[in-house]
Design brief:
The structure holds two protein chains of two kinds. By secondary structure, chain A is an alpha/beta fold. Helices cover 23% and strands 26% of the residues of chain A. Classes of the chains: A alpha/beta, B alpha/beta.
């Protein structure tokens, strides 16, 4: 099925709002760690516009998920890359959509297998509610309402601009 | 439910058992290799463990001894946080007369999730998979002269890391092809991934002409076979072959089929050398080659862990 373009969701406007929210609020040397794949794009772009020096890393949470026996191992597992010492670092974890909170739980566990960060904050482009774990974003581009049977998918065009699409939930 | 066409795949086409490379679709092989790439990263960390298979019970059933292979499966299972038990079945239940299927049924009653099976009889893992409970997965860790699929996968994984385009490769496999499950698995993997030329090299007693049906070219002269190749796999010459009628002696074998620096120079300058181990230095391979800059033999060992982690993770993820 062709994904519906979520026209009322302006991903670029939400990105600007997220930049404004983060600008004065993240530690100057904080590392930006994006959750594959949408969060990885966000982390790269945010590191260019948020003042300070922000090393960029990426995590794939597939090996830390809690639903292996229900959902299986996804086909395109990416390699976690944290090219800076996690031990003692201030880290801003970055994801495109905050929903149940399970990916973020998995991402935090991933980080801690690389070391003990001094602090971890969470930045997301969109918060759609529906949390199943006690997790909240420190920085958010905007709250959105999405039908329960749909997922929000972030894409990036050739110019590097973001768009949100609504797609049916797989299971 | 398992597919009727291929015992290894479930009805959605996902991997349910890993029994052989033969018949495995290219997309599954590529997915295993891609997943293993991510596990290479895990193995390079200080904390070399992920919680993916927490609570799963994996039983290593080695009806034939192989300390090395058993150890690599144990390490892979432990790094996935599974509980792993290795049974020396060769010396326990079977010797008291219990059948393989009874051994497996007893362990399944202990809530086993996965069996890693090594057996001297070709087809033993197949038999276990046929009778296994629907939630149980079986990995073939080498059966008779048939296949050793995780070895074949780690071989092509190692090759891909050095030479990513399989469609441009010429690969030589040297030694006792006839009795080698390692060779058989590697040949099927290379063929499925699109390698256009595979050369099988050895004396006629160990590389009979009928092996050409595997889609390979047969050579009796190593010097001829090595010209222009990108990859050389040296097989271990089993001790029991040395004193039989198949080859005259170890030194004679080395003179004809041992990989020396001089012979290696016939291959492409960037050719890589593989060996499944354990090596017989001075029988099939010269130490200068085994320890030389073109040798990727120890990388095969390292990547073997990542491949086994990828296979176990994919199988456990297919349980429904």
């Amino acid at each position: 099925m062709k994904p519906t373009l979520a026209t009322q969701l302006d991903a670029e406007a939400m990105f600007s709002a997220l930049v404004d929210a983060m600008r004065a609020a993240v530690p100057e040397q904080a590392a930006f760690v994006g959750v594959y794949s949408g969060g990885a794009w966000l982390a790269e772009r945010l590191a260019q516009v948020i003042p300070g020096h922000h090393p960029v890393g990426f995590v794939d949470v597939s090996f830390y998920r809690d639903d292996l026996s229900r959902a299986g191992l996804k086909a395109n597992v990416r390699t976690t890359q944290l090219p800076f010492p996690v031990e003692g670092a201030d880290i801003v974890l970055i994801d495109d959509v905050l929903f149940t909170g399970r990916s973020i739980r998995a991402a935090i566990n991933t980080l801690f297998d690389y070391g003990r960060p001094r602090s971890v904050q969470l930045a997301v482009l969109a918060d759609r509610g529906g949390r199943e774990l006690p997790i909240a974003a420190d920085h958010c581009g905007g709250d959105v309402t999405v039908p329960a049977d749909e997922m929000l998918e972030l894409t990036r065009d050739a110019a590097g601009h973001f768009q949100f699409h609504r797609v049916p939930r797989a299971r | 439910m398992l597919s009727k066409r291929n015992l290894q795949l479930d009805d959605r086409g996902e991997l349910h058992h890993l029994l052989a490379i033969e018949g495995l679709p290219k997309r599954i092989i590529e997915r295993i290799l891609d997943t293993a790439e991510s596990f290479v990263g895990v193995n390079e960390r200080e904390v070399k463990v992920v919680p993916l298979l927490r609570g799963k019970s994996i039983f290593n059933l080695f009806f034939e001894n192989s300390t090395r292979t058993r150890t690599t499966f144990e390490i892979a299972a432990k790094r996935l946080s599974a509980d792993v038990v290795s049974l020396d079945v060769a010396r326990s239940s079977t010797s008291k007369g219990e059948t393989i299927l009874d051994t497996v049924a007893n362990l399944t009653a202990m809530h086993a999730d996965m069996f890693v099976v090594r057996h001297s009889e070709s087809g033993a893992p197949w038999l276990i998979a046929q009778h296994a409970a629907p939630h149980v997965h079986v990995i073939n860790a080498g059966d008779g002269r048939h296949e050793h699929p995780t070895q074949g996968l780690l071989d092509v994984f190692t090759i891909r890391r050095h030479k990513p385009d399989f469609t441009r490769l010429t690969v030589a496999i040297v030694g006792d092809i006839l009795h080698s499950r390692v060779a058989r698995s590697q040949i099927h993997a290379l063929t499925t991934l699109g390698v256009p030329e595979i050369r099988l090299v050895g004396p006629r007693t160990l590389v009979p002409p009928e092996l050409a049906r595997l889609g390979a070219r047969i050579y009796t002269s190593l010097d001829e076979a090595l010209v222009g190749v990108d990859v050389i796999t040296m097989l271990r010459l089993q001790n029991e072959r040395m004193n039989g009628a198949l080859i005259p002696s170890a030194s004679e074998y080395f003179a004809c089929y041992g990989l020396t620096p001089k012979r290696l120079a016939l291959a492409k300058p960037d050719a890589i050398v593989l060996h499944p181990g354990p090596m017989n230095r001075g029988v099939e391979i010269d130490s200068a080659v085994a320890d030389g800059r073109q040798s990727v033999i120890l990388q095969q060992v390292t990547y073997g862990i990542a491949i086994r982690m990828a296979v176990m993770a994919m199988l456990a993820g297919a349980a429904r």
